[in-house]
Amino acid sequence: MVESRPRLWPPQCCVPAFVHAALVRLGVPCPVPEVLPSILGVRVRPDQENPLGLALATEAHPPGIRGADAEREVNRMCRELGLPFRLRRIPFQTIYAEAWEDVLTTALSRKAVVGVGVDYHVLMSTEPIRPAQHVLRVVQWREDAVGLFDDSGETVPPHLEIGREQVCRAVMAISDGLWIIGQGPDLSLPFTLPWSDAA
Fold first, then answer.
1. Domain tally for the chain?
2. Predicted pLDDT at 139
3. For the whole model, what pTM was predicted?
4. Is 161 helix (H, G, I), strand (E, B) or coil?
5. Average of pLDDT values for 86-97?
6. Predicted pLDDT of residue 5
7. pLDDT value of position 8
8. Do 188 and 126 contact (CB within 8 A), yes or no?
9. Long-range CB pairs of 125-133, under 8 A, 24+ apart, other chains included
């Protein structure tokens, strides 16, 4: 499927945008995607546009959503809806022998939707205004580069071709990793810690 442009999401909504895109690709109808940010608990800074009326960030609850919270809330939502899909986040530092490329390609071969959590400024080699954690969907894997797509609409154009080493640096800069949405049994992957769908 060739994508020309993403739907435009409010600020801090890269995680719900990725989740929405993944579920649609997995055949789940999502007629009202704008409910996802509040279901997941996304927060915005007081100085940002807030057309969805999301909760405001505080010192205890920073803007966006923490990865562990996103994983828990996506999986809770999928269970409640009776969907067989789950989100598994795999930090790079937990992957045996730094075999993240093998984990990524195995997940893609199992028809899972894979994203990467990155520091956007490190990924794009730009000067940071503030830390910029971002999730981008992997749309193509090649020997020399990773094709990424920004489902949130924040990157223009939304298609990126980034070298694998640059992707790795951007992930490691914020101690993040792979965001994989697929069938529960498909999320047990080589070179990773055991995974279970415990509620």
1. 1
2. 97
3. 0.93
4. strand
5. 95
6. 59
7. 72
8. no
9. 125/166, 131/174, 133/64, 133/174, 133/176
Distance in angstroms (rounded) separating the CA atoms of residues 12 and 52: 12
Is residue 9 in a domain? no
Asked if 63 contacts 12 with a C-beta cutoff of 8 angstroms, the reply is yes
Of 182, 70, 153, nearest to 117 by C-alpha is 70
pLDDT band at 131 (very low <50, low <70, confident <90, very high): low
Q: How far apart are CA 75 and CA 39, in angstroms?
A: 11
Q: Which residues contact 181 (CB under 8 A, 6 or more apart)?
A: 19, 22, 23, 26, 74, 85, 86, 87, 88, 112, 113, 115
Has residue 4 been placed in a domain?
A: no
Provide the β-strand partners of residue 114: 180
Q: 49: which 2 tokens?
A: 């546009």
30 within 8 A of 74, measured Cβ to Cβ: no
Residue 123 has pLDDT above 60, yes or no: yes
pLDDT tens-digit profile of 5-58? Answer: 566 788 899 999 999 999 999 999 988 899 999 999 999 999 999 999 999 999
Beta strands in 31-176 (DSSP E): 43-44, 55-56, 85-91, 113-119, 133-141, 146-149, 159-162
What's 169's domain CATH number? 3.90.70.10
Full domain range(s) for residue 178: 14-187
